[in-house]
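Thread amino acids onto this structure.
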């Protein structure tokens, strides 16, 4: 049977990574394109998914049998703090339109994207799939967090009432080519890559915010792309599954900055501004469920993935989101 996979948010960091993997892995391999599959990657220029009518037309045009739903209003801490209502409403509308249109058009399966940032603020670590609703999210991003959590609630409701095969995946911090490298509104890795690039270009110091001591669990977008393809094809449970490297593979911000300096070939002054906030010290997530189900997965070593991302940024500086 012909399979049409629609990837919403297909023009972003994760969407582009899935497109890369589908087009470069051997055909009919575990993560490569199957001969009966058509993949469609859409961004907001194809349809504003906040709007039900545009969403309906998008589905009518492509007639998907499967959906990977990545589209979301996303942003760094400052943007999340400033636009709580916008994060809540835009994401509720996007998610509701995608899920309900999928239901109305008999889509066989939908995999939506949650995030470990939507977990409770006060929680025991490591995070795992069962703790997502176990308390209020952090005050700074409650709009985004509650909208994302509702996807899991909706998935259960669509299953209970109509038997739909809708599920979700929970990644930790993601990085890779095509990320948002904006200096004011990016995540830590793309932000530091851009800062270091400018420090080298302008012969100025490379200043990293905070002490460099906090630990983070990053996943390379190309690895995450393979895991999303696995979820779409092989994971059929409504309960979310966390997609991340192991808890013992956390890296410090200092290690991240060191790797960027090395990869960029930066030889100027390099320092940490400990007067700036470090954020949470660590927030590890468990990939026990993932590894048990997938039966082994080789993650790209962090330094290698970071080096590829830095090289991509240098090569595509003019096209990158800066
Ligand atoms: P990006 O910002 O790189 O991409 C966002 C995508 O969503 C783009 O394709 C964008 O389209 C699309 N989009 C945004 N608003 C709309 C809209 N109103 N209608 C249609 N499309 C829209 O995000 P990421 O790739 O980083 O994120 C993908 C998913 O992963 C999101 O659900 C996010 O919450 C989740 N996530 C991300 C993490 C990270 O570290 N980046 C961590 C954990 C989860 P266009 O380009 O045309 O604007």
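Threaded sequence (322 positions):
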């Amino acid at each position: 049977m012909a399979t049409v996979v629609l990837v919403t948010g297909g023009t972003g960091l994760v969407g582009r990574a899935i497109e890369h993997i589908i087009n470069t892995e051997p055909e009919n391999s575990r993560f490569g394109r199957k001969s009966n599959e058509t993949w469609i990657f859409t961004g907001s220029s194809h349809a504003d998914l906040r709007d039900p009518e545009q969403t309906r037309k998008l589905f009518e045009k492509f007639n998907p049998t499967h959906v990977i739903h990545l589209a979301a209003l996303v942003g760094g801490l400052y943007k999340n703090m400033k636009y709580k209502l916008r994060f809540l409403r835009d994401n509720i509308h996007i998610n509701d339109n995608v899920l309900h249109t999928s239901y109305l058009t008999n889509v066989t399966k939908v995999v939506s994207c949650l995030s470990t940032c939507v977990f409770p603020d006060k929680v025991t670590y490591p995070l795992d799939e069962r703790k997502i609703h176990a308390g209020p999210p952090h005050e700074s991003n409650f709009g985004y967090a509650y909208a994302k959590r509702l996807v899991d609630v909706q998935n259960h409701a669509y299953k209970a009432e109509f038997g739909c095969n809708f599920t979700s995946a929970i990644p930790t911090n993601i990085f890779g080519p095509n990320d948002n490298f904006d200096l004011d509104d990016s995540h830590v890795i793309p932000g530091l890559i851009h800062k270091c690039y400018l420090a080298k270009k302008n012969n100025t110091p490379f200043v990293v915010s905070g002490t460099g001591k906090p630990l983070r669990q990053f996943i390379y977008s190309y690895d995450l792309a393979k895991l999303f393809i696995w979820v779409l094809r092989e994971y059929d449970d409504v309960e979310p599954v966390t997609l991340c490297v192991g808890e013992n593979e956390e890296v410090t911000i200092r290690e991240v900055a060191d790797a960027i300096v090395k990869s960029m070939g930066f030889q100027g002054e390099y320092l940490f501004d400990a007067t700036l906030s470090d954020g949470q010290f660590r927030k590890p997530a468990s990939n026990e469920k993932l590894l048990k189900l997938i039966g082994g997965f080789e993650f790209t070593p962090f330094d290698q993935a970071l080096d590829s991302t830095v090289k991509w940024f240098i090569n595509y500086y003019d096209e990158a989101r800066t």
